[in-house]
Design a protein that fits this description.
The protein is an alpha+beta fold and about 140 residues long. About 40% of the residues lie in helices and about 15% in strands. The protein is built from 5 helices and 5 strands, in the order αααββαβαββ. The strands form 2 sheets. It has a 3-stranded antiparallel β-sheet.
Length: about 140
Amino acid sequence: MTDPEKCEYGQSETPAFWRAQEMLLLQQVVALAGKNFNPDPVLKEMLHLLSELIGLNRGRIVLLNPAKGSASITHYYGLTKIEAERGIYELNEGITGRVLATGQVVIVQDIDNDPVFLSRVVERQNLPAGQGSVPRFPHHDWS
């Protein structure tokens, strides 16, 4: 008897596989946070784990600087220092600025067909051919 889920999906594409990857990622991040209260190495390793476990190619964490009224990339994975330094956003500027201003998740399924996508950090010609997508998640300060 065949497993219908394995027939429909490749083994690494099943919902159960991705759920296991998410749980492993969460366990690793919690373990890191428990060992080190400095957020810098924890965030860098979290981005690395996202790459290893779910295939994140270019991860970044963008934080708002209220004194400047803008936000910038503070932690990154898969970017050069020069690319990361280009990641400065005003509120409501591009996808990242919109997420920062509204606090709403945005998922761009095709960056080539989204007029709001800036392509500021990594120029489109330097990305792999084919459809590119990006998720943007806001950080909520629950304190």
